[in-house]
Specification:
The structure is a homodimer of 358-residue chains.
Chain A (H helix, E strand, L loop, with lengths): L6 E3 L1 H14 L4 H17 L9 H10 L9 E5 L3 E5 L5 H19 L1 E7 L7 H5 L7 E7 L20 E5 L7 E5 L6 H10 L8 E2 L5 E2 L10 E2 L3 H18 L23 E7 L6 H16 L15 H13 L1 E3 L1 H14 L12
Parallel strand pairs in A: 3-4
Antiparallel strand pairs in A: 1-12, 2-3, 4-11, 5-6, 5-11, 6-7, 8-9, 8-10
Helix pairs in contact in A: 1-2
Chain lengths: 358, 358
């Protein structure tokens, strides 16, 4: 296999490799497993922008001191159904795992649990922690604030995070409903992609440095800003900032450094986690039947031209998960080279599959 | 004063009139007051589409049997921090008031409260019940499902409600942050408004009966559909349907009749209410300071051309409230005639102000 070739790898092998890598970087066993769940889970579901591609920067955060490899996550205050945690600058998915795990156990006792986490780091996908509730047959929600990469409504410079939210709901036969999105119309990555390919971007994605509408993707790095998903998206970003920032006692807005540029600085953002125990409201089997009934009714809607089916949030990700578990994950030569380099640097074996087109 | 003149009325006088009207229509004293809070409150905040203009249809629902004038709202199941209520076909704001009141009292005991309500009716604005949490210094959220007036993503006919959500957060010096919006790009009322004025509507509001994009507002009543706020808005509408419909055991999607067309039919929709007790996380004075700090930082953002300031969600409504309390509410001749007609029919006195331009 040529070192510059693309790579195919079984999901469980990539998971084992990722966990071992974080352990080699000084993290305790269980934290390595959480990081592998978060990153490999994102790739498996098709959210590759938040997947294994982030490994080098995350390891840099541990090495450069931005994140704490030995976090002691503590409970600052607690009530029957709530808690406030200090993540002690753990990598974000670890703090999010603690937050949602506690929300779920509060929900078992009280019907609902709501946990806020401060002094945290970039959590990756919100789906990762929201979906932890599924293991206990609960509905989960995660909401976080972050680096200000979006213009507030009416403003012309980035001043608020796009503050993503994630929901996970146990489904019926069709699998769970999982919704995970940020409050900007689009992600900065898609703008950079268009710039590389010399394509104009649609109306409403970006404004230039003077605050005017633009279709030129090159205007974003020249002092432009990402637009919110209308005033409604801006409003949701503010509520996310209230919960994950103001209420949690975490850093807010411009106080938050960029997690992968400033690898030696504490991110210090926050997140909140809600778990709802379905059994307090309805028999879980009835709930599953009703989820199927809802999905079926939506899927019967006559289609717009060019659309082949109505999907529920998370349905495509569930299909991708099954396919990736069957065939393994595929990475391009650049990412493959990064992974092989990390394997060598840390002395961790990585079992690649026979590369299908090497 | 000519009977066809517009009308100006003090907020407290309209409130007293509205409450008395519902009492005259057979509702107990406290339910009349709740209906007046919901309707007059919407007008006072500037959400006049959900205000007193709805009085005739709401009274029709009571008279025609769609809504129950003597509801016995019962608790079906309950845990420390959760409850499921049956609204007994009460008018929506009454069920929503019960749901949020109980969520707040659960939150006092447990830190957070989450209450689902089934067998309900159109609740009007979500802000009405969400804002009840403010009286106890808490954060409130209300989310409801309703008549399917929006196309699911990729579909060409209305098949899901635009399932509005409302958040209310105690603010600092700037007043509360209140966000209340539906998951469609725009409301049907704005499309009808454009049709009346012969104006084209913007891209992305509506599709025609064949599922194609259109700028002709007349296409909506001819079998067209309202579009969701992107796939993200559709995703949120699905989560709203899950919580308010599937979980609450309420009617879902196409099972829900239109509340003001089918005044003799039970609406039977549902809603959920979340209350978060700030004191379990942070000192309320610190919370208020941090809310001000957040608002100030957002307001410092350089502005886009033509924008005179950055506002927080609910800020304009707070200003309108102060103005309306000072000067009274103004209604056009058509609404004024409706109100005067109701005053006569039910024999309830209504104290109008000296009409400023009568």
């Amino acid at each position: 296999m040529k070192p510059d070739a693309s790579m195919q790898i079984r999901v469980e092998d990539l998971h084992a490799f990722t966990a071992a890598l974080f352990n080699a970087a000084g993290q305790p066993l269980e934290h390595g497993a959480i990081m592998a769940d978060a990153l490999v889970g994102a790739d498996v579901r098709g959210a590759s922008s938040h997947g294994i591609i982030r490994l080098p920067q995350l390891l840099s955060r541990l090495r450069d001191g931005g994140a704490n490899p030995f976090p002691q996550i503590t409970t600052i205050s607690e009530a029957c159904a709530t808690a406030l945690l200090d993540a002690d600058a753990a990598l974000g998915p670890i703090g999010a795992h603690s937050g949602m795990t506690m929300a779920v156990s509060k929900a078992e006792a009280c019907g609902v649990g709501f946990v806020a986490v401060r002094n945290s780091d970039f959590i990756g996908t919100c789906a990762h922690s929201a979906m932890l509730a599924l293991d206990r047959g609960m509905i989960g929600m995660t909401w976080t604030n972050g680096f200000p990469g979006m213009a507030p409504w009416g403003g012309r410079t980035n001043a608020i995070g796009n503050n993503p939210i994630g929901f996970a709901v146990p489904g019926g036969a069709g699998g769970p409903v999982v919704l995970d999105f940020a409050m900007s119309v689009t992600a900065g990555g898609w703008v950079r992609h268009a710039a590389k390919e010399g394509r104009p971007i649609p109306d409403g994605w970006v404004i230039d440095a003077d605050g005017n509408d633009t279709n030129d993707p090159a205007d974003l790095p020249k002092g432009g800003a990402l637009l919110a998903l209308g005033h409604k998206g801006y409003g949701l970003a503010v509520i996310g900032e209230v919960l994950a920032g103001v209420l949690a006692g975490a850093k807010m807005l411009g106080q938050i450094p960029h997690w992968f540029n400033a690898t030696d600085q504490r991110v210090g953002n926050g997140h909140v986690h809600l778990a709802i125990d379905i059994r307090r409201f309805i028999d879980p089997a009835d709930f599953a039947d009703r989820m199927d009934e809802m999905a079926l009714a939506l899927k019967k809607t006559p289609l717009r031209p060019g659309v082949d089916q109505i999907v529920l949030p998370g349905e495509a990700a569930t299909r991708r998960t099954a396919a990736h578990i069957a065939t393994g994950l595929r990475f391009n030569a650049a990412i493959a080279a990064d992974l092989r380099g990390l394997a060598e640097t840390y002395g961790i074996p990585m079992n690649e599959m026979e590369n299908q087109d090497a």
